[in-house]
Amino acid sequence: MVKLAISNNVTDAGFDGVVVVTNGPESLSPKFELLKSALIDYKKIDDSDEVAVIVCDKLPSKRLEQFKNEESTKTTVNYYRLSFKSVDVLWYYIALSSGCQSPLLVCSTHDLYPLAVRVACLGALHALYTPLEIREDLPSKKTKVNQLGLFGIDDAELKILQAIETGRIVYRDIGGSDPERMAAPRVADYVVDIFTGTCIKVEVISELAILEKKYPLLVAVNRAARNVKRHNARVIRLEYEGEGPIKQTLMLVGKGVTYDTGGADIKAGGVMAGMHRDKCGAAFVAGLFQTLSILKPKGLKVIGAMSMVRNSVGSECYVADELIVSRAGVRIRIGNTDAEGRMAMSDVVCEMKELAVGEVNPCLFTIATLTGHVIRAYGANYTAVVSNHPAVSSKVSQTLFEAGEKSGDPFEISTLRREDFALHKGKSEYEDLIQSNNKPSTLTDRGHQTPAAFIIMASGLDKHGRDSSAPLPYAHLDIAGSSGPFPGVPTGSPIVAFTHAYVLDRK
Ligand SMILES: [Zn+2]
């Protein structure tokens, strides 16, 4: 990642520009008097919300760059409701396009938003990411700036920023790289490489016979890719166990579809482009373990699984109407081969469910770029969380929502209803479940909620409801919108929110 430097002096000659993030120069504290007077003078000639590069003779670099968030001048309450993503966009336009090589970032604090400075720093770091393929192929473009200065940050805060940002780099590397650079076997190599010698345990399951036995639904998706060695499926297991008595166990399953052609129900009409991003759920899992490996939270155990598979098309591909029996013994009728994400994850969730019996205070999660429907419902910037009843009781959605609000990595809460289960119930004596209807999720009522109901029933989690003898909290996170734009760089969502909800502040 970019070299970081702490400075407590805005006239530090080691920097060639100062970037100020503020909701108006008046809000800057007296310690920024030099910047404040320059910005207030500038405001007399330009009071717009536009970003600005200002010449400031009192700074060694003579360059002062200001940006205000678009909501800031409208109402104080909305200040810093902006996520790190919008800081990123503004940062890009001012710091990078103006040619700064050593910018110093100065953020004003805000009583209502205690994490305002952290959010702004994460925005700047996001903008300074260089994609893996560029780092590998074009070394001269490896970094965007020589260093980033952070004003008024202490060492503990620096460690948090580094832990989150390196986690997001892992996520962006896996999620954003093309379907060959991050085909399943190469994702496994990358993950083994980064965690060798750390406190994270890694196990890669690559043998087809074992995958067939353990994950029959995932293997159905893998059928069209199994004769192409470099595209073969992998399940990558990760484990972290913090010091001290374990108080909570998080069990994460990420969708890692390295490329989604749609399969036999092929994505026609130009909607296939961008489908190398269908591995961002698995990228999240690897990224979070990177963050864990630095922060080493006490009393927390995390078990992760990355379901890496390519949804190819060809003579071997699975097709609609096939009956496949899941690991949990549920007979499933395929409805649409483009609903492969739930196939990749359900048996892995089933395995987690079996493991959960022996764990302390377990909570299961699936994280997936699952549906277009979530974007229709909430727009492109929000992670949807759908909890089962035990997770509702333990306020999982609420915890993530609140962490997301304060850390600029926002969530929307969705709920499971009886219709979601009804849609997937078998329609004849041949099958217990229907995997999917044959319309796109965007044209299906409750299109991003129903997949959670399917995963619950296909994995046997429906035997662990609120009224069972062994309730198991489970939350499904749909990141199809929040994982980032294509073309563009993956955001790393929801690593920031998840870290604030479950990793930081553990004693
Ligand atoms: Zn699909």
Automatic annotation (TrEMBL):
GO molecular-function annotation terms?
manganese ion binding; metalloaminopeptidase activity
Which SUPFAM superfamilies does the protein's record reference?
A: Zn-dependent exopeptidases (SSF53187)
* PROSITE patterns in alphabetical order: CYTOSOL_AP (PS00631)
Domain (Cytosol aminopeptidase) spans: 336-343
Q: Name one GO biological process term.
A: proteolysis
The organism sits in which domain of life?
A: Eukaryota
Q: Does the keyword Transmembrane apply?
A: no
Annotated keywords: Aminopeptidase, Hydrolase, Protease
CDD domains, per the entry = Peptidase_M17
In which family does this protein belong, per the annotation?
Belongs to the peptidase M17 family.
Give the protein name, as stated in the record: Cytosol aminopeptidase domain-containing protein
Say which species the protein is native to: Paralvinella palmiformis
